[in-house]
Amino acid sequence: MAIRQSSDMAKFKETLKAAKEVVILSGAGISAESGIPTFRGAGGFWRKYQASSLATPEAFRHSPSLVWEFYHYRREVAAKAQPNQGHKAIADYESRLGSEKKITVITQNVDGLHVRAGTKNLIELHGNLYKTRCTKCKEVLVNNDSPICEALAGRGAPDAKVVGSDIPVKSLPHCKKTNCGGLLRPHIVWFGENLDPAVLNKAETAMATCDVCLVVGTSSVVYPAAMFAPQAATRGAIVAEFNLEPTPATPDFHYYFEGPCGTTLPKALAD
């Protein structure tokens, strides 16, 4: 369904003003503006490893220490990053209008920047760097410790000459329940794993009834999120994309605003 895109900001703002239910779907692009690596394309490596090859259950089974070094690095980078004007514009929009509109933010990002910016009604599709899940008892807990365990202090630097990890598994984060003690893993949806059905259901419910959807900094290639906005457009919702460059889904959308999210979003979401 090819649509002729508009970049008429004034017209879009009128559409947004009339909407009763709004979904903002965000991806790696908005966090990249805060200095968070996207681990896509040429920047897709940590040390000599393709980052996507470490974000798998198989990699964790093979070398939990190496995977934890990678995620320790990611936690430290995200902790130093600050929400940008795009994150802040979304949080401010929800704060101002959340009592009169249903506003839902669905993010593919795991860095916690939306929460730090002040977003309340947030669905994190792929988990969160600052949550752990026990591989034995399955308990999920928030953990903002830096480092998450002593053995990871000063580790995880993206030095291409470093191969593997010599951290003993017993020194990695473990469940603190006295009757458990299982190895902890990052509470992240890895490649080859399914999204949490309850989380996916919440996202699909919001997408099914929104009048307007803003697609922000997402490449529209990671499924199932890649289908959310095109499906909304097909059923009649107005979809506006905010990106640095067009994506495979751009022809499906009504509006396209090119440029950094930190520049375009504050204009779109301001009074």
Automatic annotation (TrEMBL):
> Keyword Cytoplasm: yes or no?
no
Signal peptide residues on this chain, from the entry's feature table: none
Q: Where does substrate bind?
A: 71, 74
Q: Pfam families, alphabetically?
A: SIR2
In terms of InterPro entries, this protein maps to: DHS-like_NAD/FAD-binding_dom (IPR029035), NAD-dep_sirtuin_deacylases (IPR050134), Sirtuin (IPR003000), Sirtuin_cat_small_dom_sf (IPR026591), Sirtuin_class_III (IPR027546), Ssirtuin_cat_dom (IPR026590)
Cofactors per UniProt? Zn(2+)
Cofactor binding note: Binds 1 zinc ion per subunit.
Q: Name one GO molecular function term.
A: NAD+ binding
What is any one of the record's Gene Ontology cellular component terms? mitochondrion
Annotated catalysed reactions: N(6)-succinyl-L-lysyl-[protein] + NAD(+) + H2O = 2''-O-succinyl-ADP-D-ribose + nicotinamide + L-lysyl-[protein]; N(6)-malonyl-L-lysyl-[protein] + NAD(+) + H2O = 2''-O-malonyl-ADP-D-ribose + nicotinamide + L-lysyl-[protein]; N(6)-glutaryl-L-lysyl-[protein] + NAD(+) + H2O = 2''-O-glutaryl-ADP-D-ribose + nicotinamide + L-lysyl-[protein]
UniProt cross-references to PANTHER family, sorted A to Z: NAD-DEPENDENT PROTEIN DEACYLASE SIRTUIN-5, MITOCHONDRIAL-RELATED
The record's comment on protein family reads:
Belongs to the sirtuin family. Class III subfamily.
Q: Note what the entry says on domains.
A: In contrast to class I sirtuins, class III sirtuins have only weak deacetylase activity. Difference in substrate specificity is probably due to a larger hydrophobic pocket with 2 residues (Tyr-71 and Arg-74) that bind to malonylated and succinylated substrates and define the specificity.
Q: Which NCBIfam families match?
A: PRK00481.1-3
| Functional note | NAD-dependent lysine demalonylase, desuccinylase and deglutarylase that specifically removes malonyl, succinyl and glutaryl groups on target proteins. Has weak NAD-dependent protein deacetylase activity; however this activity may not be physiologically relevant in vivo.
Stated name of the protein: NAD-dependent protein deacylase
